[in-house]
Every structure is written in structure tokens, then in C-alpha cells.
Design brief:
The protein has about 425 residues and is of the alpha+beta class. Helices cover about 20% and strands about 20% of the residues. The protein contains eight helices and 20 strands. The strands form six sheets. Strands 5, 6, 7, 8 and 9 form a five-stranded antiparallel beta sheet that branches. Strands 11-12-10-14-13 form a five-stranded mixed beta sheet, with helices on one face. Strands 18-19-17-20 form a four-stranded mixed beta sheet, with helices on one face. Helix 1 runs antiparallel to helix 3 and helix 5 packs across helix 7. The longest helix is centred in the middle third of the chain and has 18 residues. This is DNA polymerase domain-containing protein.
Length: about 425
């Protein structure tokens, strides 16, 4: 045994946990070994969520207070009992990703620093046809949790009206997920189109509390994020521990629990006892695969979103694009910072506030846009302000960015490919 490691026997396999005493959650004191033992205690439920699926590795090798990085390719040095499958991405590149089927494989992945689990919506046996439609409810800042639950119940009704069974879970963060098993008979593009139709229908039935508008500055209430069904997207699976200070868990629920559920009730400490007591509320999910025909027919009947009006937001000096990218918008947007970390981006906002006192204080929480953007292997962060409701003659002009980080410096991709984020 290596110094500073511990070997766990899991279903006949030896799983080495390196640096088992490393603290991953500073506030609660939970270590890497605690994290591995948690996943083993709920392995049946976790494997229902991630089993047979290729998985992107989101690695917090130094705990949740340090930046994580995404790793698509399976580590070259791995036990022979770790399985992989090849995935091809829209960029033209490909990678062999980990496929978890057994508890030992799950523990091995967690030892890599994977606090939460990020499976794709396909099975390893058919990586071209999703068997899962994912509804991601993302509240804008300032929205109460009760509104998120209300939208979830509307989503359940819409799904049922189109012949699909929704399975609810908390995200372990601010939002809510509803997954539907579907027959693996449709392409990613078709699943995405069905999800967009679903999102528009939810917003139409609950216009005061739900939106399907893609651009942040146009949203209100709870955003029904249909883009989680795009080909290269992964979401945190059920039973995933999230990188929060209280080690919350994405908890699978029954619909009876949804009206009164509180995300704070589900943590790395409470979930093992809950699982031992009631089992997995999603135990029957694989028996409910449905059809997308009805949602695709709905998509045919829906009108396309109107073309954006207004103007392209001005870019900061020296930048090729501004707060609205290269698209037009009717909102008045100011870009403040592009930073490697959220903290650095918000520090830039604080400096901007000193030079422009009284502006941010007049904005609603949803008008302060903090965007987590997808970089090459890690996220980067952008801060923008929607100053539409500030009189035009009182709005500050677009200035040089307070923090000017280029996540794609030195990037080279396939011919004709463009870096994400522009």
C-alpha cells in the first residue's frame, strides 16, 4: 500500500483511496475518504443515475474551495476493470470517457477528486441516441424556492400531457431537475428540439413565473433550460454531492415530496440514512421510457422565437465583441469583467462600483448578470449589468474591462472551429 493511502475492498475489487484524510469540505471537515464512503453507501441509487453512461470527470483535486477542471478523456493509468467508450464532439475531436457500471468503478472515479458526477444522456451501447430528456429549472437571482417548486409541478403536468413520466430531483444548488426516460430512437438534435418545445409550453402555461427565453437579460422567474439536452452537455446526477459549503446532495424525490421539499435537508450526512430507510425514489425510472412524438408535433405547431431587436451591445476597448456577443439585443448592457474565477470577476465589479456610485444599487438582483462560461477545460466568469431601467442619460458608458482574462489564449482547434464564449 502506498504511503498515505487506504485500500477498500468493494465487491471483490481493491480500490485505492489516495490522500484519504485530505479535507474536501473545509466547513464541515469531510475528507476524500468520507466522500468515497458516502458514494458506496448510496451506490445503488447512484448507479441508477449514472450506470452504463459515459461520464465527464469534474475534478476538485484540492477540495471544493479550489478551482475544478473538466477532464473528458479517461486517465491513461487506470485498472483494467475500468471501462471506457469513445465519444465524438461537435468540435470534431473525440475522447474515450469513463463508463461506470459497478460500485468499485464508482469509488475509483470519486478518488480522482470527482465530488459530483456528470454523466451524458446516452448509454455506452448507443452514444448517438439519448435515452433521457432533461428538464433543468434555473431560477434567476432573487426568485424564491417556492416558485421553483411551482414551476416543477407545471412541468410535470406538461410532460404527462405529452405521454412522458417526469422524475424529480433537487440539484443540490438553487435549481431543480426533472428527468424523463425516452426510447433511444431520436437524435440529439431531435431531443433538443423536443426539450425546447416543452420549455415554451411550460412558459406559456405559467407566464408569470416561468420563461424559455434564452438570453439572461430577457429572463424572469424560473428559466426552463432546454440546452442541457445538447450533445456535449452533462448535468449533475442524482446522489451527486455538490461543491457547496454544507455538502448538499442532488436528491431524487417522489412527487409527493416536491411541494414541501427543502434542498438544505439533503446532505452528505443525511442522504445515507434516507437511502437506507426509503430506498431510491427513482428505482422504477428505467421502466417508463416514453416517446417524443407528441413533443415534436408540438414543436411543429409552435412559432419560432422572434428575431432579436435592438442593437449589438458596444464592446470594451480592444475587444472584438461586447456584452451581447455579436447578437442584437433590446437591453442596455455593460460588460464589467472577464475573469478566471468568480471571485476575481466580482472584485472587478466592486472596483467599478466605486467609480460609478449608486448605479448597481438601483438594479434588481436579476439585472446583475454573473455568467459561468465554458472554457477549454475549466469555467471562466463574466459580469455584465443590464441597465435598461436606468435612464439613458444616467447610464455609464462601456469602458475597459476591470478584469480582462482570455480563456482561449493560445487555443488551437480544428480548422474552422471557433472558441466557445464568443
Amino acid at each position: 500500500m502506498k504511503s498515505g493511502s487506504e485500500i477498500l475492498e468493494v465487491d471483490g475489487f481493491d480500490v485505492t483511496v489516495t490522500n484519504p484524510a485530505k479535507v474536501y469540505f473545509p466547513r464541515t471537515g469531510h475528507t476524500k475518504l468520507d466522500l468515497v464512503r458516502y458514494y458506496l453507501s448510496v451506490a445503488g441509487g447512484a448507479l441508477t443515475a449514472v450506470g452504463d453512461r459515459p461520464m465527464a470527470l469534474k475534478r476538485y483535486v484540492n477540495g471544493i474551495d479550489k478551482e475544478a477542471f473538466f477532464q473528458k478523456r479517461a486517465p491513461e493509468k487506470r485498472p483494467e476493470w475500468i471501462e471506457t467508450v469513445e465519444l465524438k464532439y461537435p468540435s470534431g475531436r473525440s475522447a474515450h470517457e469513463i463508463v461506470v457500471r459497478e460500485a468499485a468503478q464508482l469509488a475509483w472515479v470519486v478518488n480522482l477528486g470527482c465530488v459530483d458526477l456528470h454523466p451524458h444522456s446516452v448509454r455506452a451501447a448507443d452514444v448517438h441516441h439519448p435515452d433521457e430528456l432533461r428538464v433543468d429549472l434555473d431560477p434567476v437571482p432573487g426568485v424564491p424556492w417556492s416558485m421553483v417548486r411551482d414551476v416543477a409541478l407545471v412541468a410535470r403536468e406538461v410532460l404527462a400531457d405529452h405521454g412522458l413520466t417526469g422524475w424529480p430531483k433537487t440539484t443540490g444548488s438553487r435549481g431543480f431537475h426533472i428527468y424523463c426516460r425516452i426510447a433511444p430512437a431520436w437524435t440529439f438534435r431531435q431531443v433538443h428540439r423536443a426539450a425546447a418545445a416543452l420549455a415554451r409550453e411550460i412558459a406559456e402555461r405559467a407566464p408569470d413565473i416561468a420563461t424559455a427565453r434564452w438570453w439572461k437579460e430577457e429572463r424572469h422567474g424560473v428559466f426552463v433550460d432546454y440546452n442541457q439536452n445538447a450533445k456535449d452537455r452533462t448535468t449533475a446526477a442524482g446522489y451527486s454531492v455538490r461543491p457547496t459549503q454544507d455538502a448538499r446532495v442532488s436528491a431524487t424525490l417522489s412527487w409527493d415530496e416536491v411541494p414541501d421539499c427543502d434542498p438544505a435537508d439533503f446532505t452528505i450526512d443525511t442522504m445515507p440514512a434516507r437511502y437506507a430507510s426509503i430506498g431510491d425514489p427513482w428505482a422504477g425510472i428505467d421502466d417508463t421510457a416514453g416517446s417524443l412524438d407528441s413533443l415534436l408535433e408540438l414543436a411543429d405547431r409552435q412559432k419560432d422565437d422572434p428575431s432579436p431587436e435592438g442593437e449589438v451591445a458596444p464592446s470594451a476597448p480592444g475587444k472584438s465583441y461586447g456584452a451581447s456577443g455579436r447578437r442584437r439585443t433590446s437591453a442596455a448592457l455593460i460588460e464589467i469583467s472577464r475573469a478566471r474565477t468568480r471571485e476575481e470577476a466580482l472584485e472587478g465589479l466592486e472596483r467599478w462600483k466605486v467609480r460609478h456610485p449608486g448605479i448597481v444599487e438601483r438594479l434588481e438582483p436579476a439585472e446583475i448578470l454573473v455568467d459561468a462560461m465554458r472554457g477549454r477545460s475549466t469555467a471562466w466568469y463574466r459580469v455584465r449589468l443590464n441597465v435598461t431601467n436606468i435612464p439613458a442619460d444616467e447610464r455609464p458608458a462601456q469602458e475597459e474591462l476591470e478584469v480582462d482574462y482570455d480563456p482561449f489564449e493560445g487555443w488551437s482547434g480544428p480548422p474552422g472551429a471557433q472558441p466557445r464564449g464568443e
